[in-house]
Amino acid sequence: MKLDPFYLIVDSAAWIERLVPLGVRLVQLRIKTVDEAGLRAEIRQAKALCAEHQCQLIVNDHWRLAIEEGCDFIHLGQEDLQTANLLAIRAAGVRLGLSTHDHVELETAMFAEPNYVALGPIYPTILKKMTWAPQGVERIDEWKRRVAPVPLVAIGGLNPDRLDGVFAAGADSAAVVTDITLNVDPEARTREWIEKTDQWR
Ligand SMILES: Cc1ncc(COP(=O)(O)OP(=O)(O)O)c(N)n1
Ligand SMILES: Cc1nc(C(=O)O)sc1CCOP(=O)(O)O
Ligand SMILES: [Mg+2]
Asked: Where is the Thiamine phosphate synthase/TenI domain (predicted)?
């Protein structure tokens, strides 16, 4: 399975409506604060928008709602994995991306036979408090050797200037939140990411 090299992560369908039509091919809906009815509405709208624009939608955390809403790709962290029903996820034909931050987590992740493995944070991130020190790009090379042929996603503190190093080290896709959502011009920055990642597409 080939992942698009530009992996956008946003926290609302409104962001998807704004940025996906620019040519984004891979987007994660990562919502932490909305109630179940609100979440369902967001997932439904995101799914419709992504279908309209030939973009792969990945739903973070909320695997039950994702299945109920007919989504086909989810992302789970290690804590999510402890309570998720992997058999139900697989029976629904839903693909699975998993977070990893250290060797134990990687072993746990590989046992679940994921469709991609994410490694982070590569650089310091301002999005959320992390207990792991930045991995550095060298860790990408090691992870690539351990996970291949499963695709590897790099995440954490990424921006266009850091992409050459991330892809040279072996990442298949680069995930990003704040470099785009906190940018003064998110649309222009999204276009910059699309153009910059074209060489790995
Ligand atoms: C592509 C990608 N990689 C890592 C994460 C982080 O997942 P998780 O550890 O479950 O943390 P939250 O994002 O749920 O706070 C991700 N979402 N996407
Ligand atoms: C959501 C998330 N997960 C991470 C991990 O290492 O698992 S780093 C991260 C935040 C990514 O945001 P930004 O691109 O703004 O740094
Ligand atoms: Mg999670």
From this structure: 12-180
Q: pLDDT for 128-178, tens place per residue?
A: 999 999 999 999 999 999 999 999 999 999 999 999 999 999 999 999 999
Eight-state DSSP code of residue 177: S
The pLDDT of residue 184 is above 90: yes
Task: Name the CATH superfamily for 6-200.
Answer: Aldolase class I (3.20.20.70)
Q: What is the pTM of this model?
A: 0.97
For residue 17, CA distances in Å to 7, 48, 69, 96, 106 come to 16, 10, 18, 24, 34
- Residues having CB closer than 6 A to ligand 1 are 9, 28, 30, 60-61, 75, 77, 80, 97, 99, 118, 120, 128, 153, 155, 175
